[in-house]
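Troubleshooting log. The previous structure file for this entry was overwritten by mistake, so regenerating from the original sequence record. Sequence copied from the archived sheet and checked twice against the printout by T.R.
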Amino acid sequence: MKQRLFSVILSLVPALSLAVPALAAPPVFSDVPAAHWAHDAIQAAEESGIVTGYEDGTFRPGDSVTNAQFTVIITRLLCPEEVEEWRSKSPDHLNWYWPNMFVALRRNYLKGASFEEADSNTLEWDDSGKLPITRYDMAQILYNVMGTAASSDSMHSAQEEISDWASIPSGYRDAVAACYDLGLLTGMSDSTFSGAQAMTRAQACTVAARLQAQMDNLSPAPAWEEHPPAETAPAEEGDEIPAETAPQEAPADDPPAQPLSAGELCAEVISLVNQERAKEGLAPLGTFDTLTEAAAIRAPELIQLFSHTRPDGSDCFTALDETGASQGIYTAGENIAAGQSTPEAVMESWMNSPGHRGNILSPDFTHIGVGYVRSDTGYGCYWVQMFVGK
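Regenerated output below.
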C-alpha cells in the first residue's frame, strides 16, 4: 500500500472563518461576558467549531491549554476534512485528539516543538492540564504553519524590543521573531516574551483569530515572502541597490536577453535541489514524464486555489493518480510557492522554511517533478515541486 506523507507547510490555507465580529454578540458562555477582553475571539472560535465549552455552560478562559488541545485547535482550523478522513478510517479505537495529532505530525506542524516525538500515550499528550503548551511551543507551531522565515529585520526588531531575548533558547528564536513580527504573538506587559509561560484557552482563541486574519488579509505579495519579485517590490525608504547588482542598460548593439521557458526554469529548480542535496551527502533526485506531468497540472491550479487542496476539493496527490505517477511509489510530498520570479528566489524561500526544506532534503524521496506557470493576476509566478519515493 502506498503511503502519502503530508510533510509540507501550508502557506495559504482555506480555513473555517474566524473573523472577529465588529459588534460583540450576546455571550455564549456564562464566564465570558461581553466585556471580557477575549470575548469576540472566543465566540468566533466557538461558532467556527474549533473550540467548545463545558457542559455547565462555562468556557473557563483562564485554564491552561495542553499540547493536545492546541494541536486540535490548529488542525480544526486549517485542515478539518483531513482530520475527519483519518478519524473515519479507524473510528473504534481513536481517542478524541489522535487524528488531529497524526495530521499535525504528517504536516510538520509540530516540527521543533518540545513534544514533537512524544508518544500519544504519554503525559505530553495528556489533557489534564498538567503539561500545558508553552508560549515557545505555540510560537514554533505557528511558525511552521505559516511557513515563514525570520528575516534579519524581524530578528533585529525582536532583539531590540523583547527584553528577555537573551534567555530565549536558540532553537525557538526564529519562531519567536517571525511570530512577533507578524503580530501572532506579542510580548508581555513588562516587555518580556516569557516563553516558558503556559498559554490559556482565551489566549489560544485570540492567537487563532490572529492567524486567520493573517491569512485572510494578505497583500498582493504573500506577507511571509522575504524576497518578492524585483519587478513588483518597490524599494523601502532608505534602501540602496549595491553598485555591483544595480541593473545596467545593455549596449545598443546587444540583443535583449531571451526569457527562459517554463521547462528551462523547472530544470534549473531541479538542478538547485540536487545541489542542496549534494551538500548533505544525499543522492540526487531523478525525474520521469508522468511525475513532471503531474507537477504541470498542479502549477496552474495554484492560480485558482493556493493550497495543497486542489480546486475540485481533492488533495494534491490525486494529480499523481491522474497521470499514473503514483504507480510503484511508497511516499509523496509537495512544496508550493508564489510570487518568486526566479528559480534561485523560490529555492531560497523553500530552504528557509523547515517543512519545505525537509521535503527537499528527505532521504525517502527518489524523484521530483517541477511545475511553473506565469499569470497576469494574483502573485504572478507560481511554483510546485512534487516528490515521490519509489
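The longest strand covers residues 381-389. Archived copy saved in two places this time.
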